[in-house]
Structure formats: structure tokens, C-alpha cells
Amino acid sequence: PKRFCAIGEIGMDLYWDKTYIEEQKIAFIQQIQWAKKLDLPIAIHARDAFNEIFEILDKENDASLKGVFHCFSGSAEEATEILKLGFKLGIGGVITYKNSSLPEILKGFRIEDIVLETDSPYLPPVPYRGKRNESAYLLHVAERLAEVKHVTLKQVENITSQNARPLFQL
Q1: What does the pLDDT look like over 7-26, one tens digit per residue?
Q2: DSSP strand E in the chain: where?
Q3: Of 27, 105, 132, 157, which residue is most buried, by most CB within 10 angstroms?
Q4: How would you classify the pairing of strands 67-69 and 7-13?
Q5: Distance, CA of 4 to CA of 143 (rounded, Å)
Q6: What's this model's pTM, rounded to 2 decimal places?
């Protein structure tokens, strides 16, 4: 039988259209309930919807719910709220972008609160912007995080891998 390690990418996206906000809320709540029933973490997609997602998580969160905010690119305040809820920050290619505020924001947070990820085929790190993203490019994300946090690449590798293992039951 197939073994799944998470429910996701779930959440809400209000960037292009807010027409179906109520339907997105209903679907997100249902998916959270499935994750809790199956004892699986969730990977949350949050685009222009942090307040709505936090409102739902405040109601649905309990000791059994865990997960990661996928491709986090929010504010320091949003990161703080995410961590208070017991979730990790998923960091991908955006950390390598010249105009991204993410490196500065992450200086205020521990590596123990971060998991590395791709958004394949989207959001490739520099020097691959404009191309199709792939898992092999994760090295560039790790290298940039090591620079931001003033630690070695090996430390980033060890700590972020250790963060992911229990979260995804690897």
C-alpha cells in the first residue's frame, strides 16, 4: 500500500480572486480534519490569506495538528504567528531573489523552525530564475540560508533535515 507523508498543498489563495473565499474556507477545514484523522501533517498554501488561515487554525488547531507553511514569504509577524501555532516555515527559491525581504526576516528566526523545499516546477532559485524548478536546485536554497544565518552548509543540511524527519514521519 502507498504511504503518504502529508496532506497538501492545502490552504487558501486570495491573490487573483476572492469570489470563492467561503468555499476555500470550507475545503480547508475539511482537509485539516482529514489530516487530523489520519495523523498527517499539512502543507499550507497561503497567498494573500494569512488572516483567514490563522482564523481557521485558531479554531481547528490542537495537539494532533502539525505542518509547514509552504513557500513562506510573509512578514516577521506572520512568521511569529505560524511558529506560535506549532508550524514550520517552508523556505524555497524565494530566499535567493535579489528583492526578497525573506533573508532579512529569517535572521530573526531559528533554523530549527525551518524546512527547506522546492516549489517544483515553480519559483526556482537564482541562478535558475525563469527556468523550470527541480529538486537538485535545493542546494542553492540551503547555501543562501547558510549565508543568512552565518552557519555552515552542513549545519543547514543537518538541522533542516532533522526538522523534516519527525514532521513528515520519515
Answers
A1: 999 999 999 999 999 999 99
A2: 7-13, 42-47, 67-69, 88-91, 114-116
A3: 105
A4: unpaired
A5: 29
A6: 0.95
